[in-house]
Amino acid sequence: MIRLDQLIATLMQVVIDNSGAETGALILLEEDQLAVVAQCSGNKPYDLEKFAVANCATIPVSVIHSVERTQETLVFEDAVSEPSFLTDPYIQHNQTRSLLCLPILNQSQLIGILYLENNLSAGVFTRDRLQVLKLLMAQAAISLENARLCEQLEDYTKTLERKIEEQTQALQQEIIDRERTEDALRQSEANYRNLLQTANSVIIRYDPQGRIHYINDYGIKLLGYEEHQILGRTLFETIIPDIEISGRDVKPMVHDLLRNPQAYPQGEGENLCRDGRRVWVAWSNQAIFNEQGEFVEILSVGNDTTQRRQAEEALQRSEAKFRNIFENSQVGIYRTRTCDGLILNANQRFADLFGFDSPQEMIGIEHTTGYWVNLGDRQRGIEVLKRDGEVRSFEAQMRKRDGTVFWGLFSSYLNVADDYIEGVLADISDRKQAEVALQDSEAELRSLFSAIPDPMCIFDDEGQLICAIKGNPSYGELYREEYTGKTLHQLYDREQADEFLSYVQQVLRTQQVLTVEYSQWIAGREIWFSARIAPIRHKQVIWLARDITPQKQAEATSILEERNRMAREIHDTLAQSFTGILAQVGAANQVLTDDVEATGAHLDLIKELARTGLTEARRSVVALRPQLLEEGSLQSALHRLVAQLRTAALDTTLYYEIEGAVYALPSEIESNLLRIGQEALTNAIRHAHADEIRVKLVYDRDQFCLRVKDNGQGFGVGSIPSSKGFGLLGMSERAERIGAQLTIRSQPGQGAEMIVTVNRE
Fold first, then answer.
1. C-alpha span between 680 and 673 (Å, rounded)
2. Which domain-ending residue is among 527, 547, 567?
3. CA dist 594 → 540, 591, 598, 601, 607 (Å)
4. Do 229 and 95 sit in the same domain of this protein?
5. How far is the C-alpha of 224 from the C-alpha of 239, rounded, in Å?
6. 511/496 Cα distance (integer angstroms)
7. What string of DSSP letters covers 197-256?
8. 141: domain CATH number?
9. At what angle do helices 127-169 and 4-19 cross, to 10 degrees?
10. Environment class of residue 459 by beta-carbon count within 10 Å: exposed (0-12), middle (13-18) or buried (19+)?
11. Per-residue pLDDT averaged across 286-301, rounded?
């Protein structure tokens, strides 16, 4: 049996040993009055003398009454400076420093107060010590109540036994007072039952067979039974589970308890409620004997410890979870002493980072100060910790045990009160190496780009300029960096912007490199570019342009010179010959007198042929001199040709149409296509007498098609002799030269259509 005075002495010993207090006092609530039941000071023996709080001069009474009233813990780091208790005579007289006054609660009811103080230093009662004391007092509250209840029961039992014995001895002599004795006994029993019913513990009596004879109201309410549902039934039929949740079989222990209750003065286990719930109860057991000394009953007093057990289990699960995280983390976790870097705790990953087999080789042995490549880095980190309380993403070079250097990334927290640093450490050597490599690569690419004389741009699939490198300064304002973010339609006129965008979309669609030529007016002069457009991402292309103006100018000069030479040769040969013919015919016309009419007819025919030949020669000279194709692409050359013909052929309406995304063809193909188009348009205007001519360019993915269609008089395709169809023959020969398919569709009176189809390789 637990003696209350022994429990109090043990409790005070544990509290003083674990709290850091110099002195202390235990105050219990007895008969609605607070009484000091134990005091201790330094190494002096414990004083278990009991007296009222109001008569105690060794504790601050105002503090005790404040805790009694609020039932809240009071902790003062320096009580003499606390404004609320400046007038307390005890505090002022003793200049009390650290002070703790903790309520002792059981089932939310105040049963006592623990008072502790330390006048040697301030701030003794830390949060960790307070948590320990609260947990200790929660356990102590149950034990105190159990011990007090048992003591009351024991005292009452002894008193009852003494009274019964006295009354039995005096029965023969006090027959007259029997009624009075019986009344007193009944009143005593009523008091006893009232005590049992009002207790905040389960009180149960059962015989050696485990059959329940009595259970108080608290027990009925806790276990969920009606009185008639549990009385007369055994423990095994009601509150004892077959097997606890933990797997422990409690039935053998209960059977042994029924046989030998003295061996089980206390115990704790799961008990079964009527609705299936399980509650944890801490039991105190006592055997009851009859007058003959025979064991007849067991009295058990139990306190509900379910919440405490659940809290303990939750704490164990939490500790296990965090321990698992700590041990298996992929980053190093550590705790070091601030002053000298002594490693107080570390996980396996932290040991691995520094080349140790286990944390035990480092904890309490190694100092991190010896593993910093630059101690100044550690000093800077500590300065930040002292200023901000923490440091995040702090990079520094560290050295392993074997001397190997690695880059570490620290995130740390400073515990000022206990003078330690705790945090995490990750190895970022790979990332640092990648950063250096990336920087070197970027520098190399920048140098490479800087060395490229040509302008370079990156466009997305919508024609937006992502970035631009100016290249040669001669390109002027065209490639300024502030143009980044603008679209092609914001930088160029609509026709050229559409053309450029079609190039971009073609490259993204085909994922093939495309080479195109185009010209732009820059600083008042025409600049020719040859651009290579290549896909670099899913929706981006790189556009590298090279200035080919000198080459173009040289080609144009060469072509012009050649054309002029040919024109001169034609003029000097054919034209002069035709002129000579005309002169000779004129002279012959003057001298011929025989058959004047016939001679005149022949001479007129010769004259007409000569004039026709001269006209065609001059037309050829003129045709050689225009530079339609050299001034742009095929589509632009045809566009200019149509515009020129619109001006010359006022009676004919010409339409020009482009279908599909425009792309460049080889120069030889485009040159022959232009000549075919010229011939077809000239024939339609001169011979077909058409009111409407339509020119259409079709740009498909696999082939290109040129269509010239008119609504003129038409002709039978197979009925024209070769001597009169030289234009058709020339178009056929040009088509054959470039590997194109020429189709001519025409019927008399139904117009004509010329179709040239070129397959793309």
1. 10
2. 547
3. 85, 9, 9, 13, 19
4. no
5. 10
6. 22
7. HH-SSEEEEE-TT-BEEEE-HHHHHHHT--HHHHTTSBTTTTT--SS-TTS---HHHHHH
8. 3.30.450.40
9. 170
10. buried
11. 89
How far apart are alpha carbons 498 and 180 in whole angstroms?
122
SS3 435: helix
The CA distance from 442 to 491, in Å, is 29
Task: Please name every residue paired with 34 in a beta bridge, in sequence order, or none if there are none.
Answer: 29
Give a yes or no: residue 406 inside a domain. yes
- What pLDDT band is residue 107 in, cutting at 50, 70 and 90? confident
If asked whether residues 58 and 146 sit together in one domain, one would say: yes
The pLDDT, as a whole number, for residue 588 is 59
Same domain, 370 and 418: yes
Helix (H, G, I), strand (E, B) or coil at 430: helix
> Do 710 and 646 sit in the same domain of this protein?
yes
Q: What's this model's pTM, rounded to 2 decimal places?
A: 0.34
Label residue 474 by pLDDT band (50, 70, 90).
very low
Q: Give the relative orientation of helices 726-737 and 667-686 as an angle to the nearest 10 degrees.
A: 160
Radius of gyration of the chain measured on its C-alpha atoms: 57
Asked if residue 371 and residue 269 are part of one domain, the reply reads: no
What mean pLDDT do residues 447-469 have?
Answer: 78
The strands making up 98-106's β-sheet, listed across from edge to edge, are: 51-52, 33-41, 23-30, 109-118, 98-106, 74-76
Q: How far is CA 451 from CA 30, 468, 469, in A?
A: 97, 14, 11
Instruction: Report if residue 337 sits inside a domain.
Output: yes
Closest to 637 measured CA to CA, from 687, 676, 694 = 676
- Of 573 and 67, the structure prediction assigns the larger pLDDT to 67
Number of domains making up the chain: 5
Q: CA geometry: angle at 608 spanning 605 and 613, to 5°?
A: 125
Task: Indicate the helix (H) or strand (E) that contains 691.
Answer: none
Q: Domain with 270 in it: what CATH number?
A: 3.30.450.20
The last residue of one of the domains, among 530, 547, 564, is: 547
> Using CA atoms, how far apart are residues 117 and 96, in angstroms rounded to an integer?
7
Domain with 719, as residue range(s), is 632-761
Whether the per-residue pLDDT at 580 is higher than 70: the answer is: no
CA separation for the pair 379, 391 (Å, rounded): 12
Residue 476 lies in a domain: yes
551-554: long-range contacts at Cβ-Cβ below 8 A with a sequence spacing of 24 or more?
Answer: 552/519, 552/528, 552/630
- The answer on 363 and 394 residing in a single domain is yes
The residue written with tokens 């990079």 in the block is 395
pLDDT band at 722 (very low <50, low <70, confident <90, very high): very low
Domain assignment present for residue 597? The answer is no
Q: 142-159: buried (b, 16+ CB within 10 Å) or exposed (e) per residue? A: bbbbbbbbbbebeeeeee
What is the β-pairing status of strands 332-337 and 343-346? antiparallel
Q: Are residues 227 and 126 in the same domain?
A: no
694: domain CATH number?
Answer: 3.30.565.10
CA distance 60 to 71: 16
At position 28, the amino acid (one-letter code) is: L
Are 282 and 389 within one domain? no
Look up tokens 């632009």; give the residue. Answer: 636
